[in-house]
Amino acid sequence: MSSSPRFSALKGIQDILPPDSSLWQKVEAAAKEVFTLHGFQEIRPPIIESTALFTRSIGETTDIVEKEMYTFLDKAGRSITLRPEGTASVVRAYVEHHLYNLPSPQKFFYSGPMFRYERPQKGRFRQFHQIGVEAFGVDAPFLDAEIIVMLRVLLERLGLKGVNFEVNSIGCEKCRPGYRSALQDFFSARLEDLCPDCRRRYEQNPLRILDCKVERCIEVRRGAPRVTDFLCGDCRAHFDEVLSALTLLNIPHVLNPDMVRGLDYYTRTTFEVTSEHLGAQKAVAAGGRYDRLVEEFGGPPVPGIGFAIGMERLTTLLRDNEGVIGPFPDVCIAPIGEKATKEAFLMAGRLRARGVWAEAGYDGSSLRSQLRRADRLSSRYVLILGDDELSSGRVKWKNLRDGSQGEVDIRGIEEFLSAALRGR
Ligand SMILES: [Zn+2]
Ligand SMILES: [Zn+2]
Fold first, then answer.
1. SS3 assignment, position 257
2. Cβ atoms of 263 and 59 closer than 8 Å
3. Has this prediction a pTM greater than 0.85?
4. Which residues pair with 112 in a beta bridge?
5. The CATH number of the domain covering residues in 331-418
6. In this predicted structure, what is the pLDDT of residue 24?
7. What whole-number distance in Å separates Cα of residue 177 and Cα of residue 179?
């Protein structure tokens, strides 16, 4: 006897189910509203790109490119990668469509799945989701501050509490070489103590040692030179202006000179929103400036800045904060008998046309089990429709929130419910 196969989602990839999906919708709607208010418009780049796009922008020696890319060959033998983040695609689109010819700044937001082939663990998924923004064409510190403030406005609107805004500047191509050699000097006497990855990073990209997760390396890098001590005059001035703009708006923020971000394309301002409730992976959102990336993609020298919010982490925090569930039906119609079921079917249609979320029971189950179902759905109202009610032209209603009940003329039910729900 053969049994039917039972399928499961791929390892590290999860379904987003109701009622959780309504929390996701809430975040997406709030993000769209806040971003639009700040002049950002939606861009929908593709999910797959050529692999070279990411190795070039994120950096050959980063963890993402070295270990985590979801890369495969297509039928023509081209190397394709499922996007591990959003910025590279947006910059590619910006350059490809000559969007730099439009008035600056050009501001975009996006949302959708990202992919990283890493060991699945708590809070980490191979398909995860981000909402992000990118702004091109302005390098004024006010824009950096405005984008950080926008992120804060969004998180506040969502009711997220207990998060820190951490900021840093990682300099530019002028000050980076000095810092790089200071790091190499520092680690040269400690090479033996570093993990094999970091020993390689020491040659190729010593900054990466600063975000190694290996315990030993965290220990070894205590007392390492800090990037903020190596900023050139321009970068120092830029960073100071970002900080004073944040202070001007009374935005609490913490300087974190250890934050170098895991991607090579960042320059100057970097920032993260962290929460202690997330454990080791504590950033819920992160971003920064990337003033060289458009040029590296073959465009003109146009500065850029952006951030991305991790949806899985944000919704985890929101769920812990308020335990959101719902949405709930406005009314469940409980018909008893065939004739009443037909009436319930018609009534549900009329109610929906009036903007009332109505559920009707069609399975002929008992009144008792229909009432239990309404209760489990947390419906606001229940309507009881039996033969008696049909012949008398009256419907019994019950408000499941406050327990009140009564009868109403069957022809006036839409009016009655719309009015009752308006006052909710
Ligand atoms: Zn600099
Ligand atoms: Zn290491």
1. coil
2. yes
3. yes
4. 130
5. 3.40.50.800
6. 95
7. 5
Ligand nearest to the CA of residue 211, numbered in listed order: 2
CA distance 354 to 348: 10
110 backbone dihedrals φ, ψ, rounded to 5°: -145, 165
- Nearest ligand to the CA atom of 187: 2
In the chain, which residues fall in CATH 3.30.930.10? 20-175+231-322
For domain 20-175+231-322, the CATH architecture is: 2-Layer Sandwich (3.30)
Work out the end-to-end distance of the chain between its first and last CA atoms, rounded to an integer number of angstroms.
56
Which numbered ligand comes closest to the C-alpha of 178? 1
Q: Where are the alpha helices (DSSP H) in 231-337?
A: 233-248, 293-296, 311-322
212 Cα–ligand 2 center, Å: 5
CA 77 / ligand 1 centre spacing (Å): 41
Residue 64 CA, ligand 2 centroid: distance in Å: 15
- Cα 110 to chain center, whole Å? 10
SS3 of 194, please? coil
Asked if residues 105 and 99 have their Cβ atoms less than 8 Å apart, the reply is no
Cα 156 to ligand 2 centre (Å): 36
Please, where in the chain does CATH 3.40.50.800 lie? 331-418
Cβ–Cβ under 8 Å, residues 120 and 11 = yes
In this prediction, residue 36 carries a pLDDT of 98
Q: Give CA–CA dist 274/31, Å, rounded.
A: 18
Please state, in angstroms and rounded to a whole number, the distance separating the CA atoms of residues 138 and 304.
7
The whole-number mean pLDDT for each consecutive block of 10 residues of the chain, a chain of 424 residues, reads: 84 92 94 98 98 91 85 97 97 98 97 90 86 97 97 95 93 92 94 92 88 89 93 97 96 89 84 86 92 96 98 91 75 95 95 95 94 94 92 93 94 91 74
Ligand index nearest the alpha carbon of residue 289: 1
Structure tokens given for 288: 């920064």
**In 34-123, at which residue ranges do the beta strands (DSSP E only) sit?**
41-42, 48-50, 70-73, 79-82, 106-115
210 CA to centre of ligand 1 in angstroms: 19
Helix (H, G, I), strand (E, B) or coil at 16: coil
